[in-house]
Amino acid sequence: MHHTRTVPRSVAERIRETLERLATERDIWLATAHPEHGPHQVPLWFSWDGQAVWVCTGAASATVRNVRVEPRVRLALPDSFDVVLLLGEARCFSEQDVPADAADTFAEKFGWDPRTEDKAFVYVRTAPTTVRAWRGEPELSGRVIMRDGVWAAQSPS
């Protein structure tokens, strides 16, 4: 087993690095739940608009069905050492109702525009209310960097 010694980052560093990852990474895990069918988790491409995560999935998907019944979701960037977890409420937008800037940004990032497909797609927007970020055990303390939709007070580095 490989162990990496980690010097804990300041809150400001965690926020800055989390925002950089949200702006540049491609994949995110989205977990939803349905009161009758239970949990559902899928990896999806995402874009970050500075305030919210946007994903796009088939209109008939379990993800869309679940969000329409229970909008509370969890999202996670796919790294088990450099962890970023987001909690928030998701909202579905049809191809006709999605804000053009969100759909255009998504299409530009991935070179694929779901609005041009024959199959119906839904854009799902999640503005995080809580964000946790940590690298290994030394950073477990202070891992909440956003609470109630407000980034933590940035302490001096």
From TrEMBL:
Residue ranges of every copy of the Pyridoxamine 5'-phosphate oxidase N-terminal domain listed in the record: 19-134
SUPFAM superfamilies assigned: FMN-binding split barrel (SSF50475)
Example of a GO MF term: oxidoreductase activity, acting on the CH-CH group of donors
Lineage top rank: taxon: Bacteria
Alphabetical UniProt keywords: Oxidoreductase
Pfam families: PNPOx_N (PF01243)
Bilayer-crossing regions: none
Listed GO CC annotations: cytosol
Protein name as catalogued: Pyridoxamine 5'-phosphate oxidase
